[in-house]
Amino acid sequence: MAAFVKAINAKIRSHPVLNYVCSTHFWGPVSNFGIPVAAVADTQKSPDLISGKMTLALTIYSATFMRYSLAVTPKNYLLFACHFINEGAQLTQGYRFLQWHHWGGKEKAGLARAVEAGKEKAKELETKVGKAVGKK
């Protein structure tokens, strides 16, 4: 049985594509792609849910590992792509966080909600007045 396993392993390792697919240079980035997928999905959610500290930490983390992926031998371009996507998503989230909390986004959204509530109330009053005038 051990000879059979050795023969299969030798066969896999002799083929360059299969050798790459069976390595940590492939499976590390593939398993890590959950982070950028979640970050890109989060860009569609409300900016009041964004954690500024976590966004900063993930931005630094991705920048560090982008550098690491090019410093190792052989260069790991799949890991670079994973962290490049995550870096872009985290920078987008960081901008949205700053826009919401520090550059007036929260106030602007509150004002827009108040205007909409005022319009709805005006429509209700218009309907009530129309009914009252029509009854006389």
From TrEMBL:
Membrane-topology descriptor: Multi-pass membrane protein
GO cellular component terms, A-Z: mitochondrial inner membrane
Top-level taxonomic group: Eukaryota
Reported function: Mediates the uptake of pyruvate into mitochondria.
Keywords noted in UniProt: Membrane, Mitochondrion, Mitochondrion inner membrane, Transmembrane, Transmembrane helix, Transport
InterPro entries according to UniProt: MPC (IPR005336)
Annotated localization: Mitochondrion inner membrane
One of the GO biological process terms: pyruvate import into mitochondria
Family annotation (Pfam families): MPC
Organism, as annotated: Cercophora newfieldiana
Primary localization class, coarse: mitochondrion
Keyword Transmembrane helix: yes
Protein name: Mitochondrial pyruvate carrier
Family statement drawn from the similarity comment of this UniProt entry: Belongs to the mitochondrial pyruvate carrier (MPC) (TC 2.A.105) family.
